[in-house]
Amino acid sequence: MNITLPSLDQQARRVVHGRGHCVEGAESFNIEWLPPIMLIVAYSPLTEDQLEALVELLSAEPLVEGIYLQERDQPKAPVRHIWGDEQCPSEIQEHGLRYHVDIGTHQNFGLFLDMANGRNWVRERAQGKHLLNLFSYTCGFAVAAMAGGAASVVNLDMSKSALSTGRANLRLNGLDDKRARFLGHDLFKSWGKLRKLGPYDVVIADPPSMQKGSFLVEKDYPRIIRQLPTLLKKEGVAVLCLNAPWLGRQFILDAVAEEAPQLVHVETLERPEVVQEKSPDDGLKVMIFIHKEG
Which parts of the sequence belong to the S-adenosylmethionine-dependent methyltransferase domain (predicted)? Predict the structure, then answer.
């Protein structure tokens, strides 16, 4: 393995993005820095030699107190301790903002670290804005927006437990959760309600690639895009996220051209420095559009 770790501090971040096929020998795993532990997220089994080499590399870092392995190829994606301190953190910081995390209970621990630049982008532009956060999960975008001075954020996700964590995340940062709404609704049955709560300066859509029984990206993302002009103010911004490795940026561009030609593509956000992809169209895409008619 040819792995060089970035400098560590007390801010959570992805430190190895092997799945992007830019790190020799690390193609089957990513590594997340969740101070004070490292979490190796393996998508196929690692050999004992690989694990020993990773433990040697990671444990040499002075700030690392424990190492955990998540086996994503196994049922329920179990997490096990493999070195050092056995106590997992219950919260992390990213760019000075705090988030609750739960390592080992669910497949995902509570914050997608490859979206760090997206949250920063929203935070820097949120002052006085009204936002709609679709597929909000634990409301990371809402925390960033409220920290940036947003007037209001409407969060929608079918998981009420994720929304509950989202509300707790706002409170954890001393942010006013009365300026946020948390809707545990089916998006496709909620367009009327969302329009009544709008219009919005910013609409963020960060759907799963596939969620059995509720969301198929090829079929359902164009249905979302079709509704955006009815939700956005004129000159409002749509932040469209896509993390389906089999679909590139052209999928979003084509869907917008077909379903919402009033939206004009103005920017595609860079991924965090470590989160590089051998093929630029693989991995996470975050594309910015402006509503030019309404």
Answer: 13-289
